[in-house]
Amino acid sequence: MTERRWISKVNKPARYVGGEMNEIIKENAPDLTRFALCFPDVYEVGMSHLGSRILYEAVNRLPFAACERAYAPWIDAEQEMRKAGERLYALESGDTLDKFDVLGFSLQYELSYTNVLLMLDLAGLPLRACERTEEHPLITAGGPCACHAEPLAPFIDVFMLGDGEETICILTEAVKEAKEKGLSREQLLDRLCGMEGFYVPSRYEVTYSETGQVKAITPVAGAPKSVRRAILTDLEHAVFPTKQLVPNTGIVHDRAVIELFRGCTRGCRFCQAGYLYRPVRERTVDTLKEQALEAVKDTGYEEISMTSLSSGDYPCLMELIGVLNGALKDKMVSLSLPSLRIDSFVKNYAEGIGEVRKSGLTFAPEAGTQRLRDAINKNVTEKDLLRTVSEAFEAGYSTIKLYFMLGLPTETDEDLLGIADLATKVISAYYKLPKEKRTQPPSVTVSVSPFVPKPFTPFQWEPQISREEIERRQNVIKQALRTQKRVRFQSHNAGVSHMEAIFARGDRRLADALEAAYRAGARMDGWYECFDYARWQDALASAGLDGAFYANRAREEGETFPYDHVDIGVSRNYLWHEREKAYAANTTKDCRQGCTGCGLMNVCGGKA
Amino acid sequence: MKILVKFSRSGALCMISHLDLLRTVQRSLRRAELPILYSQGFNPHPILSFAQAMGVGLETEGDYFAVGMEDTFDPAQFCERFNACAPSDLMAIAARKMANKERDPMARVQAARYRLVSDNEQALVQAAKALFKKTEYPYTRKTKSGERESDMRPMLLGLNTENGVRITVTCGDTNLPPAVLAAALAHVGGFPAENISFVREDLLTMINGELESVLCPPLEMD
Questions:
Q1: Do B15 and A297 touch (CB under 8 A)?
Q2: Which of A179, A213, A228 is the last residue of a domain?
Q3: Which of A119, A58, A68 is nearest to A93 (CA)?
Q4: Taking a C-beta distance cutoff of 8 angstroms, is the pair A506, A111 a contact?
């Protein structure tokens, strides 16, 4: 790597130098197709992302391609780079991003959109697709937000929708062929447009009604009426990296990972991932064991995480834990299990997982009363929670974190008081244990996030409550918890959630606000210390837009959504029906117990 | 038994903290599947200790760690197996079995030798000679408990200007960090401290009245 003297002047210089174990460096050759995976957040966040690890492996397995990595520099490094007149580069070769054939951005959350612009800008590339030429890399973006990233539409050449491991290889091969045959950018996009999983935003014209809603989305130049999300059918045999990158410096999730399954059958109505990653696809215990052992050997990690959207739902979990414990115990490797549901956590898991660190457990009841939990289809009961925390206290855990949302559809103050009540009961559960079974006194954190209605969920028609109302409701809970010394209350910035709601269901007109905010200094907006609500208000105003129109407005049943030309496979009728059930506080069963007719029967066969 | 390992770090690995380096070495040992010993107790960790903490940015050609290893292991195999599984910027250079009663390298280090490089070597040589000619050199030492006036001169042990500039300073209990040395040279020479870069060449210990590499085993041990 060429010497970049500014690196030694900034905080955490290890972010900017690469050189990790299992980094893949291929020798450059003129016929090599060069792909840079760009994660629009800092190194420690991007390096923790499993999807990026999988795609890094998938592209690098192609003999004709090389995949490198780039992350958004933190504020101090950006300033130093600008001072030195340097462009953003990929870590493997140190070559600047403008030398690559494709840049692929991972869109994990709306507030990282400004970092996409930051990375394009720092790479010396024009932000808008229409200002770029054949000289510039193809700009693509994937990840969950790609299915509704209309505010980014003018900046991206082609979005990749759905599971990425096959789509990204198809794209890379198409880029290689386009290079060989001398195809123009437009010809390349012609080829991709119409294939499953590829959405070319410039091939759709959007018109708006006088009242501001999307009137019509019209395909042009032979584009299909809608684009279907790519769905990987065979996870068992899909590419999975065991030679996972091992950073030299601490990152957010610093451990080896195996993926038990993709998708989730629970159908929580607020949860986008629950609809966007359907249907459930599992790996067998044999494959997972093999992958875990190889990952441990190849990484040297002392911890391996069994990840998925809801790991307690893996049907063979106890068997898997037994097998892994047996194989890994004398290697001093501990197992960890994220994303545990309240009703699937049982003492046995806690014991199976081991003797290592019994510090904290996190559960997400999401709402304070049974009525509201039924409305959002979070099918757990107070009894489940209290039984589980008792078991956890008995097993030696003392710190419990409880996640809730605030501002859910149909919520009243009674539901808010229910949050405080539940936290109090968790504390009491500890004191109900016989004295000899109590370990250290418990500490409970109640973390409450404002609800953000997300596309492709039953709540996509719902308004978000106003910022003032968010703050009032936060106060209701805070007051109710005032006398509880063992409960810590954690609330979230209402402005951040408001901006997230705007961009989640935003249309293309927001691109101007996004660019204006970026030009005014917005970046790293997911970090509280960088987020500036006033700057966003100015940006919206300069684009002539009203944030409340996007965030706080109830949609009509038949309204055209800005992302209506994206087909995730779950039918809109099903989602509307689920919304109606929410208002009646009727639950929908877990689809492992029988098909609920979401629209994906042709993929999963209706039997999960 | 314990094995003493001399190692170098360069490039990307210079940019990490001491704790990060510790983790990186641990994971390299584990990837190499070397028969390392773990501490007993609730939360076992490898028996591993470093001779000297290294600040972010420091390049080294001669630092040391001691690692517990099963008695059956042959230290001659260590470097090859470790290097096959370590990041390319981290390299084991030499390894030997530690004597039964040998103290951990941390307790043996008394000095460190640095090689200094500058765009203007002549100015650097002059500044070094001028600094060594002084009978005292007062400077402000930053410690955990605040700032303290101190004399640097007794910490400056040796200067060699043949074939580059090498300076030996005290290290270990009374440590003179290279950045502080660079600042002193820059002050004496009247040039910016950024113009000097340094590489730690070796850590030294007193054997029979001479400063020798920590790699040398202590006298009169089995």
A1: no
A2: A228
A3: A68
A4: no
Q: Which of A13, A21, A298 sits opposite B56 (nearest CB)?
A: A13
Alpha helices for A97-210 (secondary structure H): 113-122, 164-181, 185-192
- For residue A272, being part of any structural domain is answered with yes
β-partners of residue A205 are A218
A546 token code pair: 């009203």
Phi–psi pair at A563, nearest 5 degrees: -110, 25
Q: Does A147 share its domain with A29?
A: yes
Same domain, A261 and A211: no
At B161-189, the pLDDT tens digits run 999 999 999 999 889 999 999 999 999 99
Mark whether A27 and A174 lie in a shared domain.
yes
Q: Examine the domain organization and report whether A283 and A204 are in the same domain.
A: no
Identity of the amino acid at A314: Y
CATH architecture of the domain with range B2-106: 2-Layer Sandwich (3.30)
Which helix (H) or strand (E) segment holds residue A425: the answer is helix A413-432
Chain B hits for A13, Cβ within 8 Å: 15, 56-57
Residue A388 falls inside a structural domain: yes
Rg, Å, chain B Cα set: 19
Q: What is the pTM of this model?
A: 0.94
Is ipTM beyond 0.90?
Answer: no
For B143, residues 6+ apart whose C-beta sits below 8 A from its C-beta are: none
A401 and A477 both lie in a single domain: yes
Judging by DSSP bridges, how do beta strands B138-143 and B146-151 pair with one another? Answer: antiparallel
Residue B147: both structure tokens together:
């700032």
CB contact B15 to A (< 8 Å): yes
Among A209, A228, A247, residue at a domain's last position:
A228
Q: What is the mean pLDDT of each run of 10 residues along chain A (608 residues)?
A: 79 94 93 97 97 98 98 97 96 97 98 98 98 97 98 98 97 97 96 95 97 96 95 96 95 95 95 96 97 96 92 90 89 81 60 55 91 94 90 84 96 96 93 83 93 98 97 96 92 95 98 98 95 98 97 97 97 97 96 93 80
Asked if A300 and B86 come within 8 Å (Cβ–Cβ), the reply is: no
Helix (H) or strand (E) holding B97: strand B90-97
Using a 10 angstrom Cβ sphere, with 0-12 exposed, 13-18 middle and 19 or more buried, the burial of residue A46 is: buried
Task: Give the sign of the dihedral formed by CA A367, CA A370, CA A376, CA A378.
Answer: positive
Q: Which residues form the domain of A194?
A: 5-228
Distance from CA of B82 to the nearest CA of A (A): 12
CB contact under 8 A, B12 and A250: no
Counted domains in chain A: 2
CA atoms within 13 A on the CB side of A87: 14
Q: How many C-beta neighbours within 10 Å does residue A2 have?
A: 9
CATH code of residue A109: 3.40.50.2300
What pLDDT score does A391 carry? 85
On chain A, the residues whose CB falls within 8 A of the CB of B11 are 1, 17, 19
To probe the interface with A, which of B17, B31, B38, B59 has the most A CB atoms within 10 Å? B31
Beta bridge partners of B6: B64, B94
Residues of A in contact with B88 (CB under 8 A): 19
Instruction: Write the residue in A8, A19, A356 that is nearest to B11 by C-beta.
Output: A19
- Partners of residue A246 on adjacent β-strands: A21
Residues A336 and A446 in one domain: yes
Q: Give the closest of A16, A246, A250 to B27, CB-based.
A: A246
Distance, CA of B200 to CA of B58 (rounded, Å):
8
The angle that helices A413-432 and A382-394 make with each other, rounded to 10 degrees, is 30
Dihedral angle of Cα A132, A137, A142, A145, to the nearest 10 degrees = -30
Domain contains A221: yes
- Whether residues A271 and A129 share a domain: the answer is no
Which chain A residues are closer than 8 Å to B26 by Cβ? Answer: 300, 302
Separation CA A504–CA A150 (nearest Å)? 9
